[in-house]
Every structure is written in structure tokens, then in C-alpha cells.
Amino acid sequence: MLAALLGAACGGRANYSAHHDATGGTGFEEIPANGGASERDPEIGGESNAGTSSGGASNGGRTSTGTAGEAGASGECRPGDLKCGSWRTCELEFSSLSDLEFKPKASCGNESGVSAMRLASDRLDGVNANFELIASPTPNIMIAGSSPSVASVSLFGLPPDTLRAVGSTFQATDATTAEAKFLRRGSGGRTFVIGTTDGNLFSQSNGTQDVFVVASSASDLQTLWTTQFGSEKSEWVHGAVALPSGGLAAVGTSGPPSNAASKRMLWLLDRSGALTSRELKFADAKAVAAGLDVDAMGNLYLVTTPDSTLLRLSGAGDVQSVVLTGQALECTDCQRLAVTPVGATYLLGTATAPNGKDELRLSRRGADGKLGWTVELREDLRVASLFTRSENVIVVGTLNEENGTAVLFELDRTGAPIRQLRFASNVSVLSASRADNGRIDVLLRSSSYPSESALVELAQ
């Protein structure tokens, strides 16, 4: 495992510019690589902490104690800004999966680097797959991807020793594409890969494009069940989440998403793969789902785009409440959603500022729907993954500077920075996931190895 990086928690209000350190920072301490309390599924948000956000956060460009848009007390410094705040810096070094003595580890000190394992697909399964999805159940890290040369989907697991990979490749017949869209970790070590295909992957194609699901066990890397479903129209999937019950929920459209006449769908699959379909009715007929998550009680949270609306649904798909809509949200075009165990929501998306400029914003609302805070992020930040750790939110992505800088930062429930880490340059982050012990697993692609993925393990 890689060396652990964890910053001391900041209490109350956060002031990024007060701790300027662009070369490494001093707010981080090493802990054992196996450290950290056992956490729940990152799609569910980690262990529950009672209560919801209270008080304000001053994190840079924006601050709020319930009203978005107030001026930040700490100047122009914003979360994810490499020019300020306490950052820990690591340099990336690549090794090959064929190096049997290799095991990723690094201390991330002044003279140390982060090791990344190159995932050459021909060594994993013989298919030229581009692995772009990751989930981190125990004990194995699951990776999934699609092949650019043949219509197939691969799902493989890397054990803790990282010396071998075991899994399956599923090839479609009479198809031009089979694309893996989401990889989600569920309860009991289950993983689900969800995607679309225009051919026969697991059954006869029902229309122009179907949805497929593969359920696999992380303990023995065996396929549990597969399914393919659709209608005479083309099916599109826009979000998915593993449920506390052991099943899966996914949202999409039956028909092209751009067509207001297309049905907006919720698909529920139980532990055995039995399917229940529900049509969703949105106030805006043109709206489509942009994000889906679940709390510890099994309630579903859904955000639509454009002119976003945040909804809460029961586990059966019944709309319980319309939390907020339109201009009441901090992002009028919300793109990502993450939910804590108690039902607090983090939203990431864009909104037009009074000066006419589009801003990338991250906001938190408590379980009661009240705004806790909102911050403006750097406009050149491309977020690959957004998920919760207990009541905190973790952002992993790429800054489009110096040909790409991989970054991770974590904010607590008040918006204060817990840790800020930059761990690679000249790369593009594909996806990230949190393991039970708090370790963050990241898939990325280096400009030096554009045809291969790389695995980076960042312990809590």
C-alpha cells in the first residue's frame, strides 16, 4: 500500500490563504497504511455521524451560512487551488504489472515518489481494453473497461498483493459497441458494472441499444449474474448506485435523452438480478438524470439537468419530495451528486455568476435541505469522482495545468479542508473509489503511456 496522507482536521471556519505552501505543506502526518476505521460503501457515504451541517464556511472565493453568493472572507483562494493551502506533493513513478517483485509504496516525502502500477490490458485478459472504472470492495480492487477494437466489456479484480488479475471479458455478437458506463461496489463485496450495448451481449438485443449489468463477487472474483434489458427504443443509462439491500438502482431514458418524448426511467434490480422498471415524471419534460445516490436508509437522491432539480425517492422509486429546483440550487446545471448516510447532499455543477461567467461550484445541504455552504472551484478542474467519507466530501480530478496535475482534496461538513494532495503530473485521472479502510484507489492515464491505465493507491 502507499504511505498514508492525512491532514489534521480544521475546525470551524477554513482560511486557505492563511496556510500558503505550494511545495508540500506541513498539515499532513503519516499514519499506517492499514490505518483508518472501517467505513461503509463509498456510494452510501461511510459511517453515519449524527446531525447535519451547521454554521458557515469561509473557503475562498465563496462563503455561505445559508445564502449562496456572499463574498469570501479569505480572498481569492479556493479549494483545489495549488497556489495556496497546505498541499502535500508526490511525484509519480510507473512500474509494470509484469514486475513480480513490485508492490506500490511511497512515503511522499521530499525525496520519495508515488508508485503506480501500469495496467497493460494484454497482460490482464488478452483484449485491448481501456480500463477506466474502479471500485474498491474487500479484498480485491475491481477494474472495468471497454475494448476499442472489439465490442466487449472486461471486469477484473486485483488482489492485495497486486501480482495477478482474475476476471472475465464478455464479448457481444452482432454489435458495434459494448460500453461500460459505471462500476459500483455493493454490500457484501459485490460489484456491479453497468453499461450499454447495441448487440447481443447476454441476450438477444431488444432494440437499437440495451442496458446490461454484470454482478460479480470481490471475494472469489466469480460472476454472480448478468442481465440485458431494453425496449424497441434505444436505452441510455445516466447514473447508478448500489443499494443497502444488495441490489442496484440505475436511471436513464428509453429513447434519445435529447427527445422530450423519451421516457425517463428508473431501473431497480434485486440481489438476484430481477428487474423492476419505473417511469419517472419530471416537471421539465426535457430534463434527464445527471446523478444518483442513496443514504443509509435506502432513500434515493436524484438530480436532473439542465435547470437542475434535486429529488428524494423511496427505495421503491416513489417521489417523496422535490428538495429544490432551478435557481434555488447553487448549480443550475448540476453534474454530480454525493449523499451522506444521514441524507445530507453534496452537489457539483455550474452556474452563471452575476458577471455572466460560468462558475464551477460545490455545495452542501443538510438532511433538512438547508444550505450549509457553497464554494467556487477552479474552472480548469475536471472532477473524475465525487464521494463522501462519513460526513466529509472527497474530490478527485485533474487540473489542466502543466499537461495535467492529479489532485485530491477533502472538505469536512463545515467546508474546512481536511487534506490536499497532488500526486501526479502529466496525467489524466479517470476515476477513483474509497476502500473500507479509507484508502483511495485511483485510475489514471499518463501521457507517457496513453494506451494503458495505471493504478495508484493512496492510503487514508
Describe what this molecule looks like in 3D.
The structure is a single chain. Strand 29 and strand 30 (392-399) form a beta hairpin. This protein is mainly beta and 460 residues long. It is 1% helix and 48% strand. It has a single domain, classed as Methylamine Dehydrogenase, Chain H (7 Propeller), CATH 2.130.10. The radius of gyration is 21 Å and the shape is globular. The protein has one helix spanning 121-124; strands at 6-7, 28-29, 57-58, 62-64, 70-71, 88-89, 91-96, 113-119, 130-135, 141-146, 152-158, 166-171, 178-185, 190-197, 210-217, 223-229, 235-242, 248-254, 263-269, 275-280, 288-294, 300-305, 309-313, 319-325, 333-339, 345-352, 358-365, 371-377, 381-389, 392-399, 405-411, 417-425, 427-434, 440-446, 453-458.
Any chance you could write out the topology, listing elements then pairs?
Blueprint: E1 6-7, E2 28-29, E3 57-58, E4 62-64, E5 70-71, E6 88-89, E7 91-96, E8 113-119, H1 121-124, E9 130-135, E10 141-146, E11 152-158, E12 166-171, E13 178-185, E14 190-197, E15 210-217, E16 223-229, E17 235-242, E18 248-254, E19 263-269, E20 275-280, E21 288-294, E22 300-305, E23 309-313, E24 319-325, E25 333-339, E26 345-352, E27 358-365, E28 371-377, E29 381-389, E30 392-399, E31 405-411, E32 417-425, E33 427-434, E34 440-446, E35 453-458
Parallel strand pairs: 6-32, 7-8
Antiparallel strand pairs: 1-2, 3-4, 4-5, 8-35, 9-10, 10-11, 11-12, 13-14, 14-15, 15-16, 17-18, 18-19, 19-20, 21-22, 22-23, 23-24, 25-26, 26-27, 27-28, 29-30, 30-31, 31-32, 33-34, 34-35
